[in-house]
Amino acid sequence: xxxxxxxxxxxxxxxxxxxxxxxxxxxxxxxxxxxxxxxxxxxxxxxxxxxxxxxxxxxxxxxxxxxxxxxxxxxxxxxxxxxxxxxxxxxxxxxxxxxxxxxxxxxxxxxxxxxxxxxxxxxxxxxxxxxxxxxxxxxxxxxxxxxxxxxxxxxxxxxxxxxxxxxxxxxxxxxxxxxxxxxxxxxxxxxxxxxxxxxxxxxxxxxxxxxxxxxxxxxxxxxxxxxxxxxxxxxxxxxxxxxxxxxxxxxxxxxxxxxxxxxxxxxxxxxxxxxxxxxxxxxxxxxxxxxxxxxxxxxxxxxxxxxxxxxxxxxxxxxxxxxxxxxxxxxxxxxxxxxxxxxxxxxxxxxxxxxxxxxxxxxxxxxxxxxxxxxxxxxxxxxxxxxxxxxxxxxxxxxxxxxxxxxxxxxxxxxxxxxxxxxxxxxxxxxxxxxxxxxxxxxxxxxxxxxxxxxxxxxxxxxxxxxxxxxxxxxxxxxxxxxxxxxxxxxxxxxxxxxx
Length: 500
Fold this sequence. Notes:
By secondary structure, the chain is of the alpha/beta class.
């Protein structure tokens, strides 16, 4: 009986992963088919409108000055440009902002510093507070680690000459792509989203989302859609779908690039992906029923289902991985019509083919040399595997309705910050799951050894980066926990010495 159960579970997992692979190929086909369908504005903007640039900031002392310098270099009349620094910081970031704003205000820039003493609503709350006192007809948003080019507003605003356009999103670039294999793998993943997925959804007539930064909103669209709402961790995805359900259209500009900083260590990356994953599932529970009940075409509804459910490939992959060892030990499948091992081989080949085509297209469109492909793709596989336990936990929390705060992703502007700095250490809530990551990593090593003993060399090549990614994530989480224990011990020792 247990053999049938294992086969059925694995069969369901492989089938679901196969559907995601087919969807990936569909997005790739849409992108290629519509490659010449670039958006064109109806005409120049005349007269130029007032634009409010919102900069949500929380404890970003290493990058906030760079952000302010970049925003003040925007090629736009100063009398029509309002800059809001939405500061929720609890460290010296607030004083750094105040010092930097004084000379800028003296030069004639309209910059206001809105400092909240609480984080009510997190980023959505800060944006709402800023919108309440903003004067701009259009709202441009940049997170703290972004560096917008001077012509950003000149390239985005003309698309709003169409009164139906509610938001224009630019592509994210990468300031530190070449720092390490981890940043290169992240860049490859994000380029896949911005060079393939966003292009395909926009040009294919499906819903797509504002990415939280490097975009411009029409204020009326924000208000009519119900404003920024703090009931999910993905306020950008939430507002995007609500606005499009109200009939607003979005534009995606593939060739307008705003560079940003990628997380340098796996701890920061896990914090970021936990927020993205949990927030997406929360938005799906909130809005997917409304999307399915709407009068949108079937392709829009199906695309939305895959868009919201894209993060499910992490628990599905984890399930298939956990069942792989008992499945290999069982030998022939007890389900004669659907032999799971054959299905696994078929879907595994489909996964590899779709990933290779997807990543190859991304490498070509991003202008990266082909020789990096053989190294970057295994690094991407390892990174994805390393995030599996973390993102599965995020989905489980979203399904259970477990509350959590908006954990920021620290950025350093190239600085070397001590790994175990007590005031700036990454402390993702999932570090206590290090034993799960290490346990699954060791389990995959056992599968790897078993596959090698059975001369299953294709499985060995497939499992190598997965095992490495899981072990790397687990060891990094353990080091983070160990670092906090060390600092707590030092603090206790310091307090004891001070008392003595």
